[in-house]
């Protein structure tokens, strides 16, 4: 797919669509999904909607006890320990999934962090890039044989309008020359979008299609490392923490685009696209305001996506091969 493919399809849904509406009429019995971050915020809404539609859902969780408590009562759901910033933990979680299931129909990368203080993890990686991108990259590589075995799997990666803040900082992806928490967040969200572009290019012959998306503006635990004053100054909430910003969605509405991406027949035969408001996002000019929506060219550029893939392979130790039927990406 290219920038010119970023054209809305005329979906019957909208920004107001809820998680329940997005999956209504879909019988997911016999389908297996992995949902990172599936026990809080948008991830929890995603897990609830998928299980209600009959899917089995595996939730990798950094805090498994908290996850099990949050998911109590969700039939067809199980938790495995996993920390996205720890690649050994990611590989262990993937191995547990592989031991339990012979195929994987859906991988939804919902977990993420935003605007965190400077934090280096692993071999000195910038923390937001590590948690938001490298962890999900490694997880997808480990789970790829299961996705290929499904013969029609979809991978859905939560990006953000924040991708408009910056492309990949090829000269300094880990901010050695000075940290900016918002540029670090923006880079990680661009990485999420580019990851979907190249995963789709490699996986389509195996029936594995990938999408990235902007869920919308939602107040969830994602803002946990921002102060209340920061959120007030941005016009998001009032002094009591009540949402007052224009255009904000509920968590259920925020989960809807990911669920639409995972299930909509309108996306059959498509992939490598950036979505928002339960439709394909339009192409956006570089000088348009971030809140106006759309996707910037740098976030869906195939050459940048291939370059980031190679960078990610080198960083994580994954060893994907050329695209081809039933070839592993590990």
From TrEMBL:
Pfam families: adh_short
Keyword Iron part of the UniProt annotation: no
Keywords in alphabetical order: Oxidoreductase
Molecular function via GO: oxidoreductase activity
Keyword Oxidoreductase: yes
Domain of life of the source: Bacteria
NCBIfam families: PRK06196.1
Family: Belongs to the short-chain dehydrogenases/reductases (SDR) family.
Protein name: Probable oxidoreductase
